[in-house]
Amino acid sequence: MPCGAGSLSIELDVFHPDHAKALHHNGVSNRLNLPRPEPLRVYRQDGRDIVTCLDEWIAEGLIDTIPEDDVSFPARRVERAGVTGSR
Q: What is the pLDDT of residues 64-73, one digit of tens each?
């Protein structure tokens, strides 16, 4: 990465799996920032199943870190994706 960054913070609304792959290809890790649970429910009501996407992205190794005050939600996602994570 030209700026020399080792990691990049990405908001859920702009996350794309191809971007995560490109970052990893260039040696850059990512942190995916999630909204609170209520906006995630709204996504689902609007037909966007973001939680299933999160599980798939985690299983594929596309998300390196999910910073969260309440670790139970990302921990469930990692468990559901069937990968080993750290808290």
A: 998 877 777 7
pTM value is: 0.76
Enter the tokens of residue 24. 């990893």
Q: How many domains are contained in the chain? A: 1
Does residue 9 belong to any structural domain of this protein?
no
The answer to the question of residue 52 being in a domain is: yes
Residue-wise pLDDT for 34-54, tens only, equals 887 788 888 888 888 888 888
Q: Are 62 and 17 in contact (CB under 8 A)?
A: yes
Domain that holds residue 54: 20-81
Distance CA 83, CA 70 (A): 19
